[in-house]
Amino acid sequence: ANDYFQYCNNRAQANKSLQAKIDSNEQCRAYLKIFQEKTGGLSLNGFLTKPIQRVTRYPLLIEKVLKHTLANHPDYQSLKQALECARQLNERINKQISDQENSLRLDWLHLHLSFGSDENPSDRYILDELIKFNSFNRYNVQRKLILHGLLMKVPSGKELLGFLFNDFLLFSTIKSSSTNWQTQIFELKSALQLKLYRLPLFLTDIIIANESLNDQLSFSITTKIHEKPFVLKSQQTNVR
Fold first, then answer.
1. pLDDT per residue as tens digits for the range 88-145
2. What mean pLDDT do residues 63-73 have?
3. On the CB side of 141, how many CA atoms lie within 13 Å of its CA?
4. What share of the chain is helix, strand, coil (3-state, %, to 5)?
5. Which fold has domain 2-110?
6. 3-state SS, residue 232
7. What is the rounded CA–CA span in Å between residue 148 and residue 163?
8. What is the model's pTM?
9. Cβ atoms of 144 and 165 closer than 8 Å
């Protein structure tokens, strides 16, 4: 069972590694094309995903069988137990995959984010000691990246990349062009480099996070440390 969960954990990274090999190696592409022709059109990635996909279908299949099984049938209780086990298994798989993806993203941020902020370059020395992204936070809970997205500071129009964690909110600038950041962020061989814009805002220090009445994409943040509201505009409402 542990080997299977390890396989599930590594699938996302394995898929990225395989795609990187396909993109960079013509011989590999040619071989995989022959492979796909001989397997009825199913790609290597498709084969590697099947062990996970198959297990996720078990709850639906068992549920259908249970629906057409009489309550007094000898197999009824066993089917109910099997359904519960299948659901628990899927929940565990999903959690482990989610935790693994979160861990990889935190490691990526630690490598690609420069801690010397625009407001104060000396912040680098403070944050190097205080923030290890892939670790437990001060509440002794594993740090999780909840949401990230491109934001614009109002009224300057400065573009910032925001990262919302389960304990703080962090803003960074993008050292290179921001037009293709979505295709590079969290990628294994990404050249994307970020720079801390300001000290992170701990969620416990945020007093107000208001939406703008005039603009659904704009919102302001007031903290215990900074009395002046920090006004931002997002490109999408879900980022706001």
1. 999 998 898 898 889 989 999 998 988 765 555 555 544 554 568 888 888 888 999 9
2. 95
3. 8
4. 45, 20, 35
5. Dbl Homology Domain; Chain A (1.20.900)
6. strand
7. 4
8. 0.76
9. yes
What's at 83, amino acid-wise? L
Amino acid found at 97: I
Q: Which two tokens stand for residue 218?
A: 């704009």
Domain extent listing, the chain? 2-110, 119-234
- Range of lowest pLDDT (10-19, 109-118, 147-156, 209-218): 209-218
Query: How many Å apart are CA 189 and CA 16, to the nearest integer?
Result: 10
CATH class label, 119-234 = mainly beta
Residues 168, 202: contact at Cβ < 8 Å?
Answer: yes
Cα distance between residue 79 and residue 87, in whole Å: 12
Phi-psi region of 40 (alpha: psi -120 to 50; beta: other; left: phi over 0): left
What pLDDT does residue 70 have? Answer: 95
Q: Which neighbouring-strand residues pair with 6?
A: none
Mean pLDDT rounded to a whole number for the chain: 85
Cα(234)–Cα(240) distance, integer angstroms: 6
